[in-house]
Amino acid sequence: MATLVLGGARSGKSAHAEGLMPAEATYVATARVDPADEEWQERIAVHVARRPPGWRTVEPPDLPAYLATAAGPVIVDDVATWLTGVMDDEGAWDGTLDGVRRECDRLVTAVAECRAELVLVSAEVGLGVVPSTRSGRLFRDQLGALNAGLAERCASVVLLVAGIPLRLR
User: Fold this and answer.
1) Which band of pLDDT confidence, cut at 50, 70 and 90, is reported for residue 74?
2) Domains and CATH numbers, the chain
3) What is the pLDDT of residues 25-62, one digit of tens each?
4) What H or E segment, with its residue span, contains residue 142?
5) Residue-level pLDDT at 134
6) Which of 7, 137, 143, 169 has a CA positioned 20 to 30 A from the CA of residue 152?
7) Contact 139, 79 (CB under 8 A)
8) Measured between alpha carbons, how far apart are the two ends of the chain, in Å?
9) From edge to edge, which strands make up the β-sheet containing 74-77?
10) Could you tell me which of 153, 169, 70, 58 has the C-alpha nearest to residue 105?
């Protein structure tokens, strides 16, 4: 059974999703560390510090493949950051999205077939302004489509607004 937790920036989506997990779980971190970006490293450190001691952290190079064999409770934080990495890997910021769409399809299929108790965290980007850059619009559109595909396959979908969880399904 999968749960999708959506929310905007600083909505409390990660903390809410973490609260759904038991004392022992696997935390799948999707953020890539940039040694030159101290602020990003500080954000990652905050997430790491609040994880319970019984949680194991993994950073799989292939998230869909990992989910195909995942066991036990698993939290993936977060899908938007994973998508950013995929778009980087595929050189898709210019609008070449075939490889990105294939990877997104692989992720949606992996979530649908995952046997582990699974909680996914993702940014809800459909409520904000239209990004002023082409790459921003590409990312927003692709993440919106991915979130919709994941929501179709998740038994539970929650939207966090100002720290308040709203159950959508």
Assistant:
1) very high
2) 2-167 (3.40.50.300)
3) 999 999 888 889 899 889 888 888 888 889 999 999 99
4) helix 134-153
5) 93
6) 137
7) no
8) 13
9) 56-58, 26-29, 74-77, 118-123, 2-7, 156-161, 164-167
10) 153
Look at residues 143, 43, 49 and name the one whose alpha carbon lies nearest to residue 103: 143
Tokens of 66: 């990992």
- Residue 32: count other Cβ atoms within 10 Å of its Cβ: 13
CA R_g for the chain: 15
User: Which of the residues 12, 20, 47, 101 is marked catalytic?
Assistant: 47
Q: Is 16 a catalytic residue?
A: no
And the tokens for 92?
A: 């898709």
Digit-coded pLDDT (tens) for 107-154: 999 999 999 999 999 999 988 788 899 999 999 999 999 999 999 999
Six-digit token pair at 64?
Answer: 């869909």
- Residue matched to tokens 């990660």: 14
What number of residues does the chain have?
Answer: 169
Q: Please state the rounded mean pLDDT for residues 155-164.
A: 96
